[in-house]
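Exercise 7.
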Amino acid sequence: MLRVITFLKSLGLWIIGALRALYAQAIRRPLEAEAVAVAIILFLAAVQISDTTRTISDGRIILTGEDLAIDALEETFVRFGYSLDGIREEDRAVPRLIVSDVPEGLKDIRAVDRRKRMFFRSVLPLILTANEEIAIDRDRLLTIASTFSVDDEDINLDEAASIWIDDLATRYGIDRVEEDVSLPELVDVLKARVAPIPTALALAQAVEESAWGTSRFAREGNALFGQWVWNEDAGIVPTEQREGQAYAVRAFAAPLESVKAYAKNLNTHWAYATFRERRAATLTAGEDLDGWALAETLTRYSERGEAYVESLRAIMRVNRLQPLDNAKLAAPDVMIQMAEAN
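Solution. The predicted structure, written as tokens, is:
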């Protein structure tokens, strides 16, 4: 909300200044005044376009502005045939509908079931989108890994592959030179880190950490997972901080960024090494990821420890989230067709 107010103030001042300039130009140079008027119209059109639904190249439809009002959002979900039961029971694909902010109206929904449905349908595409991006990197990593053996001592990757591996390592918190690891060792570590997060688990944690999207941190900072930062300028300072600690809850420009940061946290932080080891064993065995099973590895995510894990599992059980571990995004071309039809 603060970002919107600041933007509107800036826009208002810009328009006033432009109109004053236009008036002055109209008196002295009518033709130049006409050009300025056209520029203003085009600028306002661009602002209007940026505040409505947009489709981008990979089929994502960005929902922003008035589209985030609860009734409008619900109508959009209906138009795209997007229902949780359809995904659980009919194996329907999840539309690539990406909310640009946590919907403000979630806190005003009195019907608990409706609030839950709106929250899950808003967050599920974000989790699947973040996982899809991780999966793209993982596929490329596994393709490169298939070209050599763990025991190979002399490995010659082409320049593009070598640069990409080093960049991936940096993104996943590994300094190859400092840690003095061989290429096969590096790839093994990356295999454990560059992997998706179970959908049911991510949904349950989003519920737990954001109070169904109604917490102050979710509403003001698109923070769905309660990640701390020690730089108060990078987040929202709690009204009641713990004694002896100066921290903030990290804020994000969009909830999708919050999901990506959460995935990176689980995929890189030392506290979640057991999570990664268990997940790697599951993937190596060719089994599907199970959010319920992997939840027990996250006792370090909260000071509540085992009680936190039980809370996550209660959320999964009551809201039938486990079948959503198998949810898939709709194909980009399908989304583009659906956007044109809607």
